[in-house]
Structure formats: C-alpha cells, structure tokens
Amino acid sequence: MPLEAFQLIVERYTDDVWRFCASQVGVERADECYQETMLAALRAYPRLREQRAARVWLLRIAARKAVDIHRASARAPEPRAEVEPGTSDPPVTAEESVLDLLRRLPDKQRAALAYRFVADLAYREIGSAMGTTEQAARRNVHEGLKTLRTRLGGAAALVAPGTPEGSKE
Amino acid sequence: MIGHEQIRRAIQDQVAPADSDRHARVLHAELARRAAAAGLLEAGYDYVDSPLGELLVAATPIGVVRVGFDSEAE
C-alpha cells in the first residue's frame, strides 16, 4: 500500500475532516468521528481511484461515521428537557449553540449543510457526495437552513459558548 | 431574521479548533496508535522535541525509518 501517500492525505485534510466531524457530532465527539473516519479511509485507501477526489471521499466517510455515532447515541439516549405538549422540538436554551441545533437535524440535512457551509462544496459536488442529484442537494441544504432559522429565532445560539459575546447577559 | 451568511459564519466559527497545529499532531499520533493496534500501519510518525527543534520521527514496528525536521517534509 502506498502509505506515504495516505499520510500526505491525512496531513492535508485533517483540518477539513475534523471540522466536518465537529459540525456533525459536536466538538466533544469530533475526535472520535475523525479517528473512525481515518481508520476506515486507511482500510479503503487501496480502492481510492482518484487522488484528486480524496477530500470529498474522506468527507463522505466522515458523514457515514457521524451517522453511526448518532445511532449509537440514540441507543443510549441522554436525558432531554421536557417538551411542551403539541411541539415537536424542545426550545432552544441559552447554553445551546448553532452546532447543537445542527446536530438535531435529520442526517441528510445535517450532512448537506456541512458539505455546503463547512466544506464549501458546490451543490453538484454535494449531490455527488450524497449519492443524490444537485437538486436534491439544494433541497436538503434549503430545508436544513429553514429548520435552523426557525429553531434559532434569535441570534444567541450563533455565538460560540464561552466567548465574551456568548457570556453576555 | 437571521441570514444564511450569519449561520454559515456561526457554524464555521464553532468548528474551529483552538490550537489547530497542536491538535492535528495529537490527532495524528492517536491515529497512528489506533492504526498500529489494528494492524493497519506499515509506518507511523510522531514529533519529538530536541535541542535543535522539533523532529519528525517515522517508524515501523521494527524500527525508525526516518528522522528529520518538520520543514523538510514540505
């Protein structure tokens, strides 16, 4: 196996993959997602045909690993805030960040938003990465954004927790 | 109403590691450890402090295969 080439890929795309993972599973679990992604990539590397496509290939693996992590979490659910009768989602609290809200989106919308906003892919590339059409990619990004905007309501969650702006009363 | 650009910037800000270079080294070292444990690694590498600066050391399970300064790899 041309391991040296794989190491170059690791070095080149670590930041991209880790950020993508953070967007999918949160910063706290991003390292785990990153490690699972890179190990899976190392196993599959001999089958990668185009080196130029390595970045999107890695992100696609990361998206699948993120779904695995979400499913594993769902099997061991954490206690959540009480939901008002008649509402489908708990309200946004002051401590929640936009990443918390992003994490709650359906898998396809969450991945599509990260491909677009974190990886900066074109809709055509997003469609290819997700195995859908460009139109479906646009729709997933649009629906994800719509849900995020509705849930955000105000701008508080747009500020990262722990930042001076985020700690303002 | 919150705009798309605000959401984009907020997401990008919140997925930025505090110390990108150091964090990347920690990730790479852990990846090498896991890959070796899984029997996937033919050669791994790590950074080591030395009196002359930080050294990149690459090794296989049977020994060191390369020692050099970080800048030499680029």
What does this structure look like?
The complex is a heterodimer of chains A (169) and B (74). Chain A is mainly alpha-helical. Helices cover 63% and strands 0% of the residues of chain A. Chain A has helices at residues 3-25, 27-44, 54-75, 98-103, 107-117, 123-130, 134-152. In chain A, helix 2 crosses helix 3 (54-75) and helix 6 packs across helix 7 (134-152). The longest helix of chain A has 23 residues, at 3-25. Mean pLDDT of chain A is 83; it is low at 164-169. Chain B has helices at residues 4-14, 20-37, and strands at residues 44-50, 53-60, 63-69. Chain B is elongated and about 60 Å long. The A-B interface holds A 1, 3-4, 7, 10-11, 14-15, 18-20, 22-23, 27, 30-31, 34-35, 38-39, 42-43, 97-99, 102, 113-114, 117-118, 145, 148-149, 152, 154-155, 157-160 and B 1-2, 4, 6-17, 20, 23-24, 27-28, 30-31, 34-35, 38, 40-43, 45.
The helix/strand class of chain B is alpha+beta
Q: How many β-strands of chain A, per DSSP? A: 0
Which sequence of SSEs, written as H and E, runs from N to C of chain A? HHHHHHH
Runs of chain B with pLDDT <50, length 5+? Answer: none
Order of strands, widest sheet of chain B? 1-2-3
- Spatial gap, N to C terminus of chain B: 46 Å
Helix content of chain A: 55-70%
Please trace the helix and strand order of chain B, writing H or E for each element: HHEEE
What gross morphology of chain B would you assign? elongated
* Main beta sheet strand tally, sense and closure of chain A: none
What is the structure about, briefly put?
Chain A is mainly alpha-helical and about 170 residues long. Chain A has 7 helices and no strands. Chain A has helices spanning about 5-25, 25-45, 55-75, 100-105, 105-115, 125-130, 135-150.
